[in-house]
Backbone:
């Protein structure tokens, strides 16, 4: 893994200010969400409310994230290991709403409070999937230079099934141009995506960044090898099956 970089001084104070303001000014909404979502999940199929996974953070540190369950408890029954898609039949009725609004990630505010994650940054990846992606593209390790976030450039601008190499390009572009303005912009777009239920639908720049087609950040320290795409997708299929198993065991 490359040497670490100094995180911009605004990042941690920005995270804490956003969390405090959001919880103080929107306290009734937070309380409602933490009551309504678990209740809806339980009433939908009587299954567990949460499931947890190990993810990789800054400098390769492992930590645990929790999400509201969005798939059926026995997600693999009848389908086998299938990569989750936009219209995946294994997603529950409540889960479909949660995914479109990204509210399934709401429990990860705890990880922001503890400092394992930031409000804005590359989405944290599973250790086994990260290893497979790094084998195909060594530059994938660059994502570990910063703390992962609840909302990333790839999620705000890209489609739900954006290929991992394209997501990496977005993440590296963000890392190379982190700023308070950039975080405010991405957070604002993320809030609109949640309010409009449009997560997984491209917002603004719909084309993944490349050296010849820069993102709004306009910074790319390297170009990914196109031949790595299939290897990334194969790895993702395998890891998604493991995620389904995690939900099944939750």
Residues:
């Amino acid at each position: 893994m490359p040497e670490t970089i100094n995180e911009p001084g605004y990042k941690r104070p920005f995270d804490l200010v956003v969390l405090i303001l959001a919880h103080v000014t929107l306290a009734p909404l937070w309380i409602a969400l933490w009551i309504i979502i678990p209740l809806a999940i339980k009433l939908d199929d009587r299954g567990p409310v949460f499931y947890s996974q190990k993810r990789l953070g800054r400098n390769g540190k492992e930590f645990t994230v929790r999400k509201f369950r969005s798939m059926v408890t026995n997600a693999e029954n009848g389908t086998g290991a299938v990569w989750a898609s936009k219209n995946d039949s294994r997603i529950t009725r409540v889960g479909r709403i949660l995914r479109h609004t990204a509210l399934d990630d709401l429990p990860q505010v705890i990880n922001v409070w503890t400092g394992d994650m930031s409000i804005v940054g590359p989405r944290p990846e599973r250790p086994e999937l990260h290893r497979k992606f790094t084998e195909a593209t060594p530059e994938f390790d660059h994502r570990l230079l910063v703390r992962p976030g609840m909302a990333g450039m790839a999620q705000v601008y890209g489609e739900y099934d954006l290929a991992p190499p394209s997501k990496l390009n977005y993440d590296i572009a963000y890392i190379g141009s982190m700023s308070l303005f950039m975080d405010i912009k991405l957070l604002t777009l993320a809030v609109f995506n949640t309010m409009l239920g449009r997560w997984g639908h491209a917002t603004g720049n719909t084309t993944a960044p490349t050296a010849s087609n820069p993102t709004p950040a306009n910074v790319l320290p390297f170009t990914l090898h196109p031949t790595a795409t299939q290897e990334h997708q194969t790895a993702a299929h395998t890891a998604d099956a493991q995620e389904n198993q995690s939900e099944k065991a939750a």
Observations:
- The chain has nine helices and four strands.
- The beta strands are 50-56, 62-68, 118-120, 149-151.
- Residues 79-83, 210-250 have pLDDT under 50 and may be disordered.
